[in-house]
Amino acid sequence: MTSRYGEVYESWRRNPEGFWMDQAEAIDWFTKPETAFDPGLGVYGGWFPDGITNTCYNCLDRHVDGGRGDQAALIYDSPITGAKRTISYAAMLSEVEAFAGALSDKGVGKGDRVVIYMPMVPEAIVAMLACARLGAVHSVVFGGFAASELATRIEDSKAKLIVSASCGIEPGRIVAYKPLLDAAIEQSHHKPEATIVLQREQHRCDLIEGRDFDYAELIAANAGRKVACTPVKATDPLYVLYTSGTTGQPKGVVRDNGGHMAALYWSMHAIYGVKPGEVFWAASDIGWVVGHSYIVYAPLLHGNTTIVFEGKPVGTPDAGTFWRVISEHDVAVLFTAPTAFRAIRKEDPEGSFIGNYDLSGFRALFLAGERADPDTIQWAERMLNVPVIDHWWQTETGWTIAGNPMGLGLLPVKYGSPAVPMPGYDVQVLDDAGHPVPAGTLGNIVVKLPLPPGCLPALWNAEQRFRDAYLTEFPGYYKTADAGFIDDDGYLFIMARTDDIINVAGHRLSTGGMEEAVSGHPDVVECAVIGIADSMKGQIPAGFIVINNTHGRSDEDVEKEVVKLVRDKIGPVAAFKTVMVVKRLPKTRSGKILRATMQKIADGEAWKMPATIDDPGVLDEIAEVLAKRGIARKSD
């Protein structure tokens, strides 16, 4: 199939507003927009400003009205608890209406904020959609986040109500949420008026009379209740999603209603290549933007079946879990982080579990959330025999900046590149002074304003911070804070965050480029390269590698081979001489490696435990390894 990408991208370039007005036709409106974009609302927002709509209506009601009521909207699969549940569009609508009625009775209405602090269970999605139905603004916080972090988000959003659960369940342990929730409310200067708690059978909790209410009791009391969708402006906020800020103060990324729906609906068929009715699985968590966009909103807007998975790629129970889910639920397309596949590869490098399952209906694997190294992509291609597609986007954009659009016909793959910009994104590479750089030259990746529909129009109650973070450094552009280059064919290469560019004896080098070389070693399943302070060269690179369980040789041999590999591929200029085998790398719960924290440890600087870390103990292990090499003092 010849790709239609070029003609579609050019049609957007010729008439950006016309292109997005065409996409808005796929959305149901109470009042159709006549204006595509209002620059008076800022060069970064203002899509469909005169349109009136409701996101919950578009996710549920219109599908039930259109004859899709019996189709599965959501499949819940929890290998941790053994629970499975399939919920039709009609049943989902009934539960959402019941919960919207309960929220309304507690005083929640249009514009009010509701914090959702939940594990990966269907009730979390019900809560999100019920807020959308009422025009309330939800703010999902990853279940199990520390009380201090939850308190910060309650306070910043001025949440009227909190929806939570008695516990979350991790492999081998139960995480009690209620003590964390109670502590967060105690710490927050702003006090929510009520909380609603889903009692899970694995660990029930005590409820405070007058403040805490039982989710199941409220659903039962409101069963059969009809609650109309509240009309909202396309530019009204749908949600606030907090992302960690460099200052330690979380940034509340705002998402609107109208532009968000138009962009996500288009992405499902154009980028991911799925048809309504097919099963789409984003193996993520609703605490992250991938969960918001591609577990909840995009699949339901498009009439797909989405999967809510409460498990891990390995250990629940084994490295074949993903293949079981794909086979059992007839998944057409999977979207996950490269970290998940590195974990599977580490446990099962030969892919021995794959043959146990029927994957004949599986069409494509999409990877995002961090840089997808060519070695991981090639391993997945060999194992699965389907296209493995890297794509790049951010919490702030909500959907793909650059990718390879399967629905328009795939372009040739260039390993190490997420391919090309999507319609709506005029991606450019600038030097630090704001001047364009030649093809192939490393620089700051920016997007020419205005941003397309679906991207953030603001930070919550932080207009100046929004401008400072994204707009001020390169006037007329959105700063992605990623560094990379565009080649002669227009393919984008993301090499590192701009603060991961290291300066070795005056040479600007990308840690991402070094990681690409390191991951080319057959025994390396995961790696990270950071720059550490050096009195002579300014900075020198240091590599951390996780190696597979079957290599059968000494760590020292592998380390020496990795050093040689980088010198051969990048050259002596990289000054790459230090490699350390570690058991695991420190990551956020979404799979991003905590390179900046590792660098602070190596340089002996003060550092703070990241709120998003998956396992705090890993940082102590990293400090131990560094101390043994004489690079950093052992952590206290």
Relevant CATH superfamily of the largest domain: ANL, N-terminal domain
Compute the number of strand runs: 29
Computed over alpha carbons, the radius of gyration is 24 Å
Oligomer: single chain
| SS class | alpha/beta
Distance between the termini: 59 Å
Low-confidence parts lasting 5 or more residues at pLDDT below 50? none
Characterization of this structure:
- With 636 residues, the protein is α/β, with parallel strands linked by helices.
- The chain folds into two domains: 5-311 and 391-483, Rossmann fold (3-Layer(aba) Sandwich), CATH 3.40.50; 505-628, ANL, C-terminal domain (GMP Synthetase, Chain A, domain 3).
- The chain has a seven-stranded mixed beta sheet, sandwiched between helices. It has a five-stranded parallel beta sheet with strand order 5-4-6-9-10, with helices on both faces.
- It is globular.
Note the main attributes of this structure:
single chain; 636 residues; alpha/beta; Rossmann fold; GMP Synthetase, Chain A, domain 3; seven-stranded mixed beta sheet; five-stranded parallel beta sheet; 18 helices; 29 strands; 31% helix
Q: How would the blueprint of this fold be written?
A:
Layout: H1 5-14, H2 16-24, E1 52-53, H3 55-68, E2 72-78, E3 83-88, H4 89-105, E4 113-118, H5 122-134, E5 137-142, H6 147-157, E6 161-165, E7 167-170, E8 173-176, H7 178-187, E9 194-198, E10 212-214, H8 215-221, E11 232-233, E12 237-243, E13 251-256, H9 258-270, E14 279-282, H10 289-302, E15 305-309, H11 321-329, E16 331-336, H12 338-347, E17 364-367, H13 374-384, E18 388-390, E19 402-403, E20 420-421, E21 427-430, E22 443-448, H14 463-470, E23 477-486, E24 492-497, E25 501-504, E26 507-510, H15 511-518, E27 524-534, E28 538-547, H16 555-570, E29 578-581, H17 595-602, H18 617-628
Parallel strand pairs: 2-15, 4-5, 4-6, 6-9, 9-10, 14-15, 14-16, 16-17, 17-18, 28-29
Antiparallel strand pairs: 1-11, 2-3, 7-8, 12-13, 19-20, 21-22, 22-23, 23-24, 25-26, 27-28
